[in-house]
Specification:
- The N and C termini lie far apart (52 Å).
- The chain is an alpha/beta fold and 375 residues long.
- Strands 1-9-8-7-4-2-3 form a 7-stranded mixed β-sheet, sandwiched between helices. The protein has a 4-stranded antiparallel β-sheet with strand order 10-11-13-12, covered by helices on one side. Strands 5-6 form a two-stranded antiparallel sheet.
- The chain has 2 domains: 13-240, Type I PLP-dependent aspartate aminotransferase-like (Major domain) (Aspartate Aminotransferase, domain 2); 242-374, Aspartate Aminotransferase, domain 1.
- Helices cover 45% and strands 14% of the residues.
Length: 375
Amino acid sequence: MTHPFLDLPPLSAQRFAAIEDRVARLLGTRQDVLVTQGEALLPLEGAIRAAAGPGTVALNVITGPYGQTFGSWLRDAGATVHDLCVPFHTAVTAEQVREAFAAHPEIDFMSLVHAEAATGNTNPVAEIGEVVREQGALFYLDAVASVGAEPVLPDDWGVDLCVIGAQKAMGGPAGVSAISVSARAWARMAANPHAPRRSYLSLLDWKERWLDAGRTALPHAPAQLEMLALEACLERIESVGLDAVTARHRGAALASRAGAVALGGGLEPYVYEEREAAPVATTLRVPSGVIASELVARALESDPGAPLAAGGGALSREMIRVNHYGPDATPDAVRRSLAALGTALAERGLAVDPAAARRAVARAWGEAAGSRAVA
């Protein structure tokens, strides 16, 4: 008995390369693109360990937990690290980056998360990229959450190492990821004697055995189901248009923010400024005396399908995430999330107005759609 998910013909090198080319078009890049065979942590760690080592002086921006992880990897690789820590309810600014460079002119590596889904903020990479170019530092960017939800343009922004994953705004699989690599990033890796070699983390191995060899023979058996799912995901984005996909996420973010404020019950946006809020997820601060993880658990009992989660770690007590990405970047997903939160808040005796929340969601989504039509 055949099965469509099991009895698959081998994935050819030609088809694998074609999927990489589609990723390059998604990013509007002429850099080399590698589709890596694992969740995005694979290229994120691999790129740091390849491009940084003893002698590297890094500026590591922390606007959430992933920035903290990158700092740990950089230090473990032997780099000298200067952390630029920004409160999680805001974004870093280009001026803060410029000041950090002025204080440490020896910095030659910069690591940044574009959108932190875990904290709900997004950083102005275009403006920051100008400052990084002035410094001449290598620019490493985690765009895993942002790709598909907002523009990701490594060439225009001067990003040397840009990592993406398909599992959030792209609406694709979690088990495959990709990285774009500039020529000077490859040169930095090649000059690093500590860069991983003969290792699953080695980007240089893939370059030599795949890119430099003309992409004619795959060095490893690919994650076939994930590659086919990534291909389907890219086809879907191409069919509706990337602008439409990013606009849908922006509409969901605006509707979530407006609806939460209208709902009441003491909820308020965790990220203070709307312009600094990520379009992939809206984070909310719970009222005093309410534990976020308990509120989310009760909300999910009333609607198990609502895209809700509590913040991770210490944030689990104070933060709620409405994860409106991929297939959940819709008015219905936003309405369901706010309705479930309203039910849980009302059970605690807090005053909520679900009807006002529904009206606010409809109004914000309509205004977002109207602005897209005008544009």
